[in-house]
Amino acid sequence: MNKSSLIVTFSHLCRCPLLRRDSSGFVAFAICVLLSVGTLHSATAQDDAAKPAPAYPLAVAVSGDDLYTVDLDLPGVWKTSDVTALFAEGTKLLRKPMNRPRCVAMHPTKGILVGDTATREIYWIESEGAAPKPLTNGYLGVVMALAVSPDGKTIYAGDAEKRATFKLPVEGGKPELVARVNARGLAFDSDAKLWAVTPDAAAVKRIDVSSGEVEDIVTGRPFQFPNGLCWAGDHGYVTDGYGKCIWKFTPDGKTEKWHEGEPLVGPVGIAITDQSIFVADPKQKEIYEFDRETKTPKTRLTTEGK
Q1: Cα 274 from Cα 181, distance rounded (Å)
Q2: Which DSSP string do the residues of 134-201 spell out, in sequence order?
Q3: Model confidence over 197-208: pLDDT tens digits?
Q4: I need a surface site. Which of 8, 86, 115, 225 has the fewest CB within 10 A?
Q5: How far apart are CA 109 and CA 270, in angstroms?
Q6: Hey, which residues does 168 pair with through a beta bridge?
């Protein structure tokens, strides 16, 4: 209730016949009630305004029934199970940990890995509210993509500043160069080959991480603005921000649009399970879950009280 509404309501109360019989007592009582209602409403409005909400969901990782969403502008990471709540809150302070989180992957033992471009770092966040643990001592530049090896021992990172893909032990350490691949999305297949989507002439590359050999798979730039990549058995998927779509590609380099248009406006991050494909769309402030058989989407980034 705003000030104008309080004045109008008070005026009506003052004209009430019951109030005129004993104006002093009733008027004082009415003033107290109205002021209390106004104060309560104001406090509630302030609480609602202060309550965080998804601002720019950029990347997503999945573990069982749980989704972990990187929010670039919150900044921080949301966890979604039945509802969405903050898992790790970053900071608005420049060059401080988790100021500009950009990518996420599941840690092989506990928690999540997050690439933060503000501090040139990969963090391990073990549990909800835990302090982010730096793993590279700021060696990397702009980490755009993360993947963990099938054996759970090695982290792979795409560095946009160095235009290359690096690796480091999962417990942390100095990163080593794997290949000169400017990865914006990374995923392993069942043969432990690392797939990468890039903004370069060869849009999708396959990396043999043991030898460093790189193969160009998708060429000719069929994607307008590729962002994320995931692998699914014998094929992969790529999000296309400008194309407002999800592409499917095969190891022989063939591509086709798997889904185009609504509800997608600017898809970026992507993750996959046996039944679903999850896509982060920052322009919609939403995570969409697509059924892999029917392609039917549903929203997942529903916060408490949203």
Answers
A1: 28
A2: ESSTT--S-EEEEEE-TTSSEEEEEETTTTEEEEEETT----EEEES---SEEEE-TTSPEEEE-SSS
A3: 999 999 999 999
A4: 8
A5: 21
A6: 155
